[in-house]
Amino acid sequence: MSELYLRLLDRVLTPLLLILTLFLLLRGHNLPGGGFIAGLMAAAAFQLQILSRGEAVVRQQVGRFLHPGIGIGLLTAVSAGTAGMLDTGFFKGLWFDIPLGPLGHLEIGTPVIFDLGVFTVVVCVVTSYLLGLNAVAEGVDA
Q1: Secondary structure of 18-69 in HEC code, one letter for each residue
Q2: What angle do CA 50, 116, 127 make, to 5 degrees?
Q3: What is the largest CA-CA distance in the chain?
Q4: What angle do CA 84, 90, 91 make, to 5 degrees?
Q5: Domains held by the chain: number
Q6: Cα distance between residue 93 and residue 58, in whole Å
Q7: Which of 41, 73, 82, 89 has its CA 20 to 30 Å from the CA of residue 118?
Q8: What average pLDDT score do residues 130-136 get?
């Protein structure tokens, strides 16, 4: 059974870590941040979940999504690079302008899509690793 302070920290810090993750992911290619560091922040939120709720609960909730997520993230990152290469040249970015009506418009490009793929790979690999470490620490056969 986890301690009361860990459950309290989980309720307070997990939403803050995920908001910081979103900020770092979207800030990505223009300023420091991006998919890798955002993925590590999200994995830290999952580690907090593992410590407060237990490895078995987190594995039951997200365990089946981790290995397919690695493949989907790799496919997303590679396809973002390939799309830019096929259209404009080697390592060139493509930018799409999505109108949002009265809110303005959203400019999204292949660097952001690449960062999203890297983010997915990092979250899934690190969370899978952390679940494995906690399973070994608890003496459970993963």
Answers
A1: HHHHHHHHHHCCCCCCCHHHHHHHHHHHHHHHHHHHCHHHHHHHHHHHHHHH
A2: 20
A3: 56
A4: 65
A5: 1
A6: 37
A7: 89
A8: 88
pTM for this one?
0.85
Looking up tokens 């999505």 gives 98
Phi, psi of 84 (to 5 degrees): -65, -35
- Chain CA centroid to CA 107, Å: 21
Give dist(CA 126, CA 65) in Å, integer.
13
- Token pair recorded at residue 35: 């998919």
Identity (one letter) of the amino acid at 77?
A: A
Q: Is there a contact between 138 and 58 (Cβ–Cβ < 8 Å)?
A: no
What would the pLDDT profile of 45-57 be if each residue is shown by its tens digit? 999 999 898 888 8
Residue 2 confidence (pLDDT): 63
Cα gap 91→86, rounded to integer Å:
10
Q: Let me know: does 105 contact 99? Beta carbons within 8 Å.
A: yes
* CA distances (Å), origin 127, targets 21, 43, 45, 60, 99: 15, 6, 10, 13, 35
